[in-house]
């Protein structure tokens, strides 16, 4: 497809958008009889020509050491409008975010937009590859469910043949069940949150990269696995997406060592170093996440911070409390460039512990009978995590809004395209 066209008196240049790269082509009208004025941008064309050496400076074009001298060009299809509503041939797609999202089928054709989702694809593929190599089995859990994994009001309700059903907030219940089958499982799939938010950090449908695994000693094994997975992803991006990294001007990080803070330590760090006091709260405020990451990068040279032992009152009912202090859980969040991208931890695995916890929390175990079967029939100690694909992509690509890292975002106002 024609990404750009520059007609000149002697002929001109066409930039072709192929499945992987942009390729420069040259037309000499005197030799070929071709006029670029008859080839609109976003046309689909078939070309014949000669490959010749070139020295191309434009970094959006690859390869840069050759171009194609066109002898023949056949127009296969062209836009139905005379002028496109946005110019995807420019170096920067300088339009309002809403315009970009309204015209998503077109805006995604811009070189920088394509690069973002090449990075996202590499993250998705790298997650799966690394876990497969580590002995994990891929699963596919249902997205129409009987009850929510996390409870609360942030769950979409639907009519399921006259019965109430819901869109899954998480594959949590199913991936736990499958630990009893395979020991180590993972899934990459959409999840749905019915929260009426309109922020740069949230969408109502996103892709969750999930894993769940049997534990031998402690929940720190999950942290170690995630560090391995992320390093594998970053190496994959560097090796397979060098073009996209160059186009976007990215700095790809690595986890050389694991920086871990206790939840209460994180609050104290912000209070001591920035004089901002959230110590009475049972979660980290967004500004705390940003400040913790700034501090960690400055003092430790790390862009990643694992915050562990979140309060039991903050975590879901299936989170395991610390035997040494039941007010804390054996759980963690991973912060990266100012945002939480992962939540994980160890789960309860004993049936009686579930019944006790549900009773304490005023929950009815009968509503979770199908889930509790797994524990009634015996389960090993286990834990896992969920990693938000769009959040990680947005942070890697230095995007201000998670919607820019989402192909077709769904939020409180947007249901199309």
Give a short account of the largest sheet: 8 strands, mixed
Structural class: alpha+beta
Q: What's the order of the H and E elements?
A: EEEHEEHHHEEEEHEEHHEHHEEEEEHHEH
Ranges with pLDDT <50 over ≥5 residues?
none
The CATH superfamily name of the largest domain is: Bira Bifunctional Protein, Domain 2
CATH class of the largest domain: Alpha Beta
Q: Overall mean pLDDT score?
A: 94
Number of domains: 2
Question: What fold name goes in the CATH topology slot of the largest domain?
Answer: BirA Bifunctional Protein, domain 2
Per CATH, the architecture of the largest domain is 2-Layer Sandwich
**Terminus-to-terminus distance:** 22 Å
Strand content: 25-35%
Key phrases:
single chain; OB fold (Dihydrolipoamide Acetyltransferase, E2P); BirA Bifunctional Protein, domain 2; 2 domains; 5-stranded mixed beta sheet; 31% helix; 27% strand; elongated
Helices and strands in order:
Elements: E1 2-8, E2 11-17, E3 22-28, H1 29-32, E4 44-53, E5 66-77, H2 97-102, H3 104-107, H4 111-133, E6 137-138, E7 144-145, E8 157-160, E9 163-167, H5 172-182, E10 184-192, E11 205-214, H6 220-240, H7 242-248, E12 260-262, H8 263-274, H9 286-300, E13 304-308, E14 321-322, E15 325-329, E16 331-336, E17 339-346, H10 351-360, H11 369-376, E18 382-388, H12 389-396
Parallel strand pairs: 3-5, 6-10, 12-13
Antiparallel strand pairs: 1-2, 2-3, 4-5, 7-9, 8-9, 10-11, 11-18, 13-16, 14-15, 16-17, 17-18
Helix pairs in contact: 4-6, 4-7, 4-12
């Amino acid at each position: 497809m024609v990404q750009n066209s520059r007609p000149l008196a002697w002929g001109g240049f066409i930039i072709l958008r192929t499945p992987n790269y942009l390729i420069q082509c040259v037309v000499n009208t005197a030799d070929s009889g071709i006029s670029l004025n008859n080839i609109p941008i976003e046309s689909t064309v078939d070309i014949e020509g000669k490959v010749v050496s070139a020295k191309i400076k434009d970094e959006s074009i690859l390869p840069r050491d050759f171009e194609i001298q066109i002898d023949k060009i056949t127009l296969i299809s062209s836009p139905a409008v005379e002028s496109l509503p946005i110019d995807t041939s420019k170096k920067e797609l300088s339009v309002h975010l809403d315009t970009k999202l309204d015209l998503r089928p077109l805006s995604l054709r811009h070189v920088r937009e394509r690069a973002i989702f090449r990075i996202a694809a590499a993250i998705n593929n790298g997650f799966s590859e690394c876990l497969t190599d580590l002995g994990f089995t891929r699963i596919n859990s249902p997205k129409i469910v009987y009850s929510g994994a996390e409870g609360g009001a942030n769950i979409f309700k639907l009519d399921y043949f006259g019965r109430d059903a819901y869109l899954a907030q998480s594959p949590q219940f199913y991936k736990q069940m499958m630990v009893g089958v395979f020991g180590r499982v993972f899934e990459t799939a959409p999840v749905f949150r019915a929260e009426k938010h309109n922020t740069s950090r949230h969408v109502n449908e996103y892709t969750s990269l999930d894993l769940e695994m049997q534990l031998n000693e402690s929940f720190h094994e999950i942290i170690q696995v995630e560090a391995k997975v992320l390093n594998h992803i970053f190496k994959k991006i560097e090796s397979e997406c060098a073009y996209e990294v160059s186009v976007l001007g990215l700095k790809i990080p690595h986890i050389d060592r694991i920086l871990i803070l206790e939840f209460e330590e994180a609050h104290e760090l912000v209070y001591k170093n920035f004089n901002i006091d959230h110590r009475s709260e049972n979660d980290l405020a967004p500004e705390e996440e940003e400040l913790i990451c700034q501090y960690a990068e400055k003092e430790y040279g790390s862009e990643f911070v694992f915050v562990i032992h979140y309060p039991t009152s903050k975590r879901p009912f299936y989170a395991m409390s610390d035997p040494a202090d039941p007010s804390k859980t054996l759980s963690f969040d991973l912060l990266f460039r100012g945002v939480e991208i992962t939540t994980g931890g160890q789960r309860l695995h004993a049936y009686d512990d579930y019944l006790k916890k549900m009773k304490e929390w005023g929950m009815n175990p009968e509503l979770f009978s199908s889930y509790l079967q797994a524990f009634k029939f015996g389960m090993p100690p286990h834990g896992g995590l969920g990693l938000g694909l769009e959040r990680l992509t947005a942070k890697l690509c230095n995007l201000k809004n998670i919607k820019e890292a989402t192909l077709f975002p769904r939020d409180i106002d947007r249901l199309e395209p």
